[in-house]
Amino acid sequence: MSTTYLVTGGAGVIGSHLADALLAAGHGAVILDDLSTGDRARLADAWPSPRLRFVRGSALDERLVGELLSRCDGAVHAAHSVDVRVLADAAHRLGRPLLSVGGGGAEGPGGAGGPGGAVGPSVTGVRIFGEVVGPRRVPAYGAVLGGFAARAVAGEAIGAVGVGEAADVVEVAGGGGPRRRFTHVTDVVDALVRLLAAGGAAGRVLDLAGTEGVTDAELAALVARRADMGAPPDPTSPPDPTSPPATATAALSELTGWVPRFTLDRLVDAALAEARRAASSLVPGRRAEELAPVQPLS
Length: 298
Hints:
Strand order of the largest sheet: 3-2-1-4-5-6-9
Shape: globular
Radius of gyration: 20 Å
Low-confidence stretches: 105-118, 160-174, 231-245
Distance between the termini: 21 Å
């Protein structure tokens, strides 16, 4: 059955990929974004669809949020820097399901990072641990992984491991620092779409993590090894059945069957491929002003 979802922060990285996935599944998407950090150019693929609506405005505008949500079947709050309570109140009042996406962060001595989205009677919180990477991010694979990949492609020293001569080795302070997790944006969106379809998780906070934790030193060594291999990423390869999802994601996997497709090796390969592409040519993206206006919400 076709449904329509309100996506706050829909011109961001996660929100725009989610819009693509919803439209591809035959659903409708109403994008609410004030464009303070979002970019309409990220919606270039979705823009021609008659099932896409774009509204420039704030997720803190109670009247606007209520009006838009009243015309939708559910919502996803992907505007990470904006308080979810206005949308959560509207979802409770209107009886609409809401996914609220928040971040966890790197793992330090105290374990994984802080809580994700706020939880209410109509809200499912999704807490993403680590860094979301992939297309439409700038840089696409983040400052750490993307930076290591760019330096490897250029033949420069990366972190604690030199690509080339041993004299290029640079020590990472503290033995590599905190343990980082990385999740490809398509894995995040796959989890969100599965949650929207599954339902039954209101009032819970579910953890999402695509890879196990890795220190900067370990990541630098892995990037160096994969760069020497020169193995291109295989976007069609299935998930590795011997590599179960991180323990923290057990509840999400049990509820939806979600398994991340991008292992750390595959993420590194994708980051290296992007770094090689960027080094060989500049491929401009479509600018927001080049996009024809979408049909206004009626």
